[in-house]
Amino acid sequence: MLLIFALQLFLPLLFVGWLCFVPPRGSLAFFAQAVATSAALLAVILTGLWLFPPWWASWVFALLLLVAVLIGWRRRYPFESRLPSGWLAWVFMTVFVGIGGWGAYQSVLALAGRASQPGTVVELAFPLKSGTYQAVNGGSSLNVNAHLMTLDASMARFRAYRGQSYGVDIVKLNGWGLRASGLLPSQPSAYNIYGEPVYAPCTGQVIATQDGLPDMQVPQTDREHMAGNHVLLRCKDADVLMGHFKPGSLKVAVGQQVTVSQHIANVGNSGNTGEPHLHVHAQQAGTAAAPFSGEPLPVRFDGRFLVRNAHVSSL
After folding, report:
1. Can you tell me the distance from the alpha carbon of 311 to that of 315, in angstroms, rounded to the nearest whole number?
2. How far apart are CA 276 and CA 219, in angstroms?
3. pLDDT at 5
4. Is 52 left (phi over 0), alpha (psi -120 to 50) or beta?
């Protein structure tokens, strides 16, 4: 995670600074580098995990890019030539064309992932209140929702968790757009979402629960109990899982009927979780041996299909 944060912070600054302070001498190469940097930055904005730096830093980078293009243009205009001069300049331009192509491809995938897949969409109420929340995983493309890797039926270890493929992971932000006190604190209580009450997103029956698993120290995970402390609800034709609860916080039992907005549990850091967050997914019924193996179903919260970096303000 720390490596992701570092790359997300320094790579955009590197490419923006390059364009600003050492722009190409040829007009074609300058144009290619500016377009490529823009495409790559758009891909990072759409697909990046904007936890640290916070989400608004992505738009600061976009503003810096605009300034860099203007400064770089003024440094080189009038350009020495139209075409790159020398083989090294051609190599750099070719590399940036490749970077731009990658950025454009990733951006198209991310934008396509903002639409749910055709078929049944499960309508849910947002299960958290009193704050601003951000989706860390969500959407229908792999580059904005890591859960989609479990759709790969060729991987035996994914089959038991196929139902989570359209899952949504949610963290809570403070007024500065940060989700924790510090970069990657080890104590779960340092995260804003830790201990937040979780409310039933639908009316239904509790069909499975687990409690008593310990909270993990960040970034340790419990891969033996992937969902951690959790509740599985049967709401009409869909099973809805909410996971990674704080031990001892469950308020419901198997067989109990629950209604929308009923207090279910509190957010913790149990199970296979890199840091405290709430996991929610909907699926068709699984098997007794593999309750999370059912066919995955996309969800909308209060009519919204949440994708990575989407924000929800809840009263």
Report:
1. 13
2. 10
3. 86
4. beta
Q: How distant, in Å, are the alpha carbons of 156, 195, 243, 277, 314 from that of 161?
A: 10, 26, 13, 18, 29
pLDDT digits (tens, 9 = 90+) for 176-190: 999 999 889 999 999
For tokens 């860390």, name the residue. Answer: 136
- Residues 245, 268 contacting (CB under 8 angstroms): yes
- The model's pLDDT over 81-131, given as tens digits with 9 standing for 90+, comes to 898 888 899 999 999 999 999 999 999 999 999 998 777 899 999 999 999
* Closest-CA residue to 168 (of 231, 124, 217): 124
Spatial distance between the Cα atoms of 240 and 280, rounded to a whole number of angstroms: 7
**Mean pLDDT confidence for 247-259:** 98
Judge whether 79 and 26 are in contact, CB under 8 Å. Answer: yes
